[in-house]
Amino acid sequence: MNHLRKKALLCGIAGLMSFSVVAQSKQSTSQTKSNVTFGVKAGATFSKFSLSGDNSVGYTSSSLPSFYVGGTVDIPLFGLLSVESGLSLIGKGSNIHFPSLPPTSMDIKYSPIYLELPVNLVLKQKLGPGSIFIGAGPYLSFGLGGKIKVTTVDLQGILTVDKDGSLQFGSDTSKDIKSTDFGLNVLLGYQLKNGLNIHGGYGLGLTNINPEPTAPTSKNTVISVGLGYSF
Fold it and tell me: Fewer CB within a 10 Å sphere, N or C end of the chain?
């Protein structure tokens, strides 16, 4: 009985593998016909929070370097237009400084990592040995993890680390940062015929990611630059 079960299980696995191979083959043929292309990308980000509101007086925000890496899919529409989407791991965040008495000053370093889904309308035009492309569209990001570090300096100039650990995502005031970020992005790049491209982008957050209502309104702004490859 056990032998029959093993044979049935092996047959089932073989059938699933065969079905998977056939499905991938059909998908590949369909993609070839429709000129859908996939790609990978990676690069550096330089982000900071855009601060606003009456409670932002005295606060300053400075840039924080990080990275991004992900995959892309490009779906042709008509003419020179296409829709580009995909998923990326992207680092955002900011360094926040606030002078106050007491303490003399406070510094907060936010270093969140997001899973980001952009949907861009892209215009491509042949230029020289390749094509220039420009695009824009919305994005939606989900917080996956990251770090937060809070340091203060008292009246005697003594530095104290008040918090140094993992970011807590959520909308409750006890959390460090909201878990979702929505905004708009633009991109510009140049792609060679061999599939290699260089690109840059700018992301403008529209969501207040600060869960504390008495704190400044904080929105992500991100400049990115990197390389990609389409195949």
Answer: N
